[in-house]
Write a structure and sequence with these properties.
Blueprint: E1 11-14, H1 18-29, E2 36-40, E3 54-57, H2 61-67, E4 70-73, H3 82-86, E5 91-93, H4 94-105, E6 110-115, H5 120-133, E7 138-142, E8 158-162, H6 165-168, E9 177-180, H7 194-202, E10 213-217, H8 221-226, E11 234-237, E12 243-246, E13 249-252, E14 255-259, H9 269-283, H10 288-295, E15 306-311, E16 314-318, H11 325-332, E17 339-343, H12 353-361, E18 365-370, H13 375-385, E19 392-395, H14 399-412, E20 416-420, H15 433-445
Parallel strand pairs: 1-2, 1-4, 2-3, 4-5, 6-8, 6-9, 7-8, 9-10, 10-11, 16-20, 17-18, 17-20, 18-19
Antiparallel strand pairs: 12-13, 13-14, 15-16
């Protein structure tokens, strides 16, 4: 379905958050239709400019769906809701509308979309940055950057999009080039379980055609398994016959492309993702060497293994976006030298046994300081599994004190890294992970 297919239709927008408001304003300002139905799972106010539209909430959602010609589903609205299942034939999304529009009406624009359990935001941002530095007009959007609806009226050489599993789950169109960073266990009520999550994620490339292709991290078995049915279009990265990460460097076959030490990025896992990004760059016939030089100027995204400060031999890293144990494990394994970890947040019924096992086997970790609601739960897992005597396990009572303790400990041990990797969501203590990360930065700056 394209925007032109909506002309004169009665349009229901289900989900009145940022994306819902964006599509409402776009359709109204472009005179696609003036006949709107507003749907939201919970009670809410009508968006500005749409006071005259009918609003259906809570138990009346199905009534609103029934009256619409087309339902535009926001990402937060699960495809497994019974109303979505019932009215499937008239359901679309902003992502699907935009990708169809660009593929059909902007033939000179190549769509590159990246997804994955972790690392997709940095990957799309780095790719868009390098393509721009190479002289191309690039639109960056989707789950990061500008909403896709803001990009469809302009002409680009490349549209680089981050696509979440929520956005990919019911696409009827796919990008020209896709890439997956990884696929980890994620329990989500939205997907009704892990199996659906994996299938929904890889559905991003299910509708590729012609010369379209997608890139997969060969080292992630789960990702390889779930993309097997699309193997005809699949290309592998992180393999020795192509781009791969080794010894803090990115290689192409036996040639060193770039070293992590020359980049502003932290974390060796970023090199695995960059192997995929550079595979795309090379497949487009672009100058890999020039792209690598440009990458040295790329600034990491805030709150993702962000270098905050270096004081008296101690490096402070803000990884506030780490809201799951799996993300924290990746962060811990990304650094050399002494490490002190600060972890804890809102309880989300997560299992911290693997995180504790990671701490036990990683002798670089000199201390773990736990905080907030999950602090006791994380500490319990640590005390059950961590048996070595060269580590301190500390229950903290504030971020300020935790940072001070970590800083003092590392100064006494010749320096190292304080890694703020919460392993848990921020809600209940902060508005979001950004506010949490900014608090950490302020605490470090005040030392």
């Amino acid at each position: 379905m394209k925007i032109s297919d909506l002309l004169g239709k009665k349009i229901a927008v289900w989900g009145l958050g940022a994306e819902g408001k964006d599509i409402l304003n776009y359709l109204k300002s472009h005179d696609v239709t003036q006949d709107f139905i507003l749907i939201n799972d919970t009670l809410c106010d009508k968006p500005e400019g749409f006071a005259g539209c009918d609003l259906y909430c809570e138990q009346r959602v199905a009534e609103g769906c029934d009256k619409a010609d087309v339902i535009i589903r926001s990402p937060g609205v699960s495809i497994y809701k019974p109303e979505i299942t019932k009215y499937r034939s008239k359901v679309t999304t902003v992502t699907d509308l935009c990708l169809n529009e660009i593929r059909d009406n902007h033939s000179n624009c190549k769509i590159i979309a990246i997804s994955g359990s972790k690392g997709k935001s940095t990957s799309v941002s780095a790719l868009a940055f390098m393509l721009t530095k190479l002289g191309f007009k690039v639109g960056l959007g989707g789950n990061i950057g500008r909403p896709l609806i803001e990009l469809i009226d302009d002409d680009y050489d490349f549209l680089v999009a981050e696509i979440s599993s929520y956005q990919a789950s019911d696409l009827t169109v796919s990008p020209h080039i896709g890439m997956f960073t990884n696929l980890f266990y994620v329990h989500s009520e939205w997907h009704n379980g892990h199996e659906n999550y994996c299938r929904d994620k890889v559905h991003m490339i299910a509708n590729q055609k012609g010369d379209d292709c997608f890139w997969v991290n060969a080292q992630n078995k789960q990702l390889v398994d779930y993309t097997e049915e699309f193997a005809a279009r699949r290309r592998f990265y992180d393999v020795e016959s192509g781009f791969y990460a080794k010894d803090r460097c990115l290689f192409y076959k036996d040639k060193n492309v770039v070293s992590l030490d020359d980049l502003k990025l932290s974390g060796t896992h970023n090199l695995d993702n960059l192997a995929g990004v550079f595979s795309i760059v090379a497949s487009l016939g672009l100058d890999v060497k020039a792209a690598a030089e440009a990458l040295k100027e790329f600034e990491p995204l805030p709150h993702r293994l962000q270098k905050v400060a270096f004081k008296n031999g101690v490096l402070f890293i803000n990884d506030s976006i780490s809201t799951a144990p799996e993300a924290a494990i990746g962060a811990v394994n990304s650094f050399e030298g002494n490490l002190v970890l600060i972890s804890g947040g809102q309880d989300n019924q997560q299992d911290y046994s693997e995180y504790a096992h990671c701490v036990e086997k990683n002798h670089k970790v000199r201390a773990v300081i736990t905080l907030y609601q999950t602090g006791p739960k994380i500490m319990k897992a640590l005390r059950e599994q961590v048996k070595r005597g060269d580590i301190s396990l500390i229950e903290g009572d504030s971020l300020e004190k935790a940072v001070a303790i970590a800083y003092d400990l590392l100064q006494k041990n010749g320096g190292g890294t304080v890694l703020f990797t919460p392993t848990s969501p921020s809600f209940g203590f902060y508005k979001n992970f950004m506010e949490r990360g900014n608090h950490f930065i302020k605490v470090v700056e005040a030392l």
